[in-house]
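Q: Predict the assembly, please.
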Amino acid sequence: MLPKRVIGILTWREGLRFEEPAYLRKLVQTGQKLGAEIYLFSHQDVNVSARKIKGFIPKPNGGWMSKSFPWPEVVIDRYRRRVKEYIRLRNSDLFFFANSPFSKKWRVTNLLASDERVKRWIPETHVYEKGKVRNMLARHGLVYVKPGNGTGGRSILRVKSSGKDYSLSGCDKKHKHHVARIDTVEGVEKWVKTWVEEQRIRDGNFLVQQGLDLGLLRKHVVDVRLLIQKDERGEWTVTGCAIRMGEKGSATSNLHGGGKAIPFEWLMSRRFGEERGELIKQECYRLAFEVANTLEDYFGRMMEFGLDIGVDVDGRAWLIEVNPKPGREVFRQMGDMALYRKAIARPIQFALYLARNQARFLSL
Ligand SMILES: Nc1ncnc2c1ncn2[C@@H]1O[C@H](COP(=O)(O)OP(=O)(O)O)[C@@H](O)[C@H]1O
Ligand SMILES: [Mg+2]
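A: Predicted assembly structure:
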């Protein structure tokens, strides 16, 4: 029998507490079923001189157990915190990673907005500074202000011009909802300035972005979550997409408390008819392939992306955000368990492909 391929999953750990225990448990179990020697580890588990790793695997009835594992042939990076020791590890050449380090939202948006292959899908975006909101409101009836390093829909503000006044709506860091009605654009500038100062995360900046009218359903913001992954032959493939529907009245579609997941085809054909719905889907796929290939040119080999795509009321597709370490719960929430399992198996299949072909990649 051939020896098993050894795959490590790098993630944050404190004691037996992991960042995404439910997902990581399924990921390891899926890897075991696919015949891999697979385990989780964190930065503190690496013994360089012995070339051994203290790895963690799920116990059958819940919880985790650890033992010493051989050095991984391929490492999947699922670490989502900016911890010093992790960054040092990433910058070392100790491991062969399936996915390269990625960058912050504002830098990625800037790169894509200036690349001929994909710029047509990127809403107009600027780094926040004095006068920018006013300037954007002169051109767009709807403007979004959001942190260049934020996640989970936090601190995102929507500014809407009605012609005679402006309405503002957003959730703060603690998910508290804020609304305001302001008469003048000077007043809006001032309100947004305070928002940015209060919501800033560490030294992060904010983006001012053309707002998209994503009201495909009455009173709800909806957007598309598309998962594009490398498969067992190392090729990009779209695993699936779903619609995320925000809470009634919310400025974002993020799922924290109350959002829902629904099938893409159902909503698009209801809104635009079956034929047009299919064309919109093809457009989203094209966007995904172009974006994935373009980003690999800048960042090196990647493994998967979760794309937030906005389809506006005219049926036009726009890229809102790129997640390099995406969740896949949206497929489970939608009730498509086959797709959900596929979305979990793909990273393992890709890592196995890399392990089998490693010599070829290392000689490049
Ligand atoms: N320019 C925009 N126009 C319309 N809606 C937007 C815009 N930017 C963000 N949103 C809404 O806010 C949500 C969260 O924004 P996103 O940039 O994905 O930040 P996060 O990292 O918090 O998920 C999006 O999924 C979308 O529903
Ligand atoms: Mg998002």
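The chain has three domains: 6-97, 124-210, 222-355. The CA atoms of residues 22 and 58 lie 10 Å apart.
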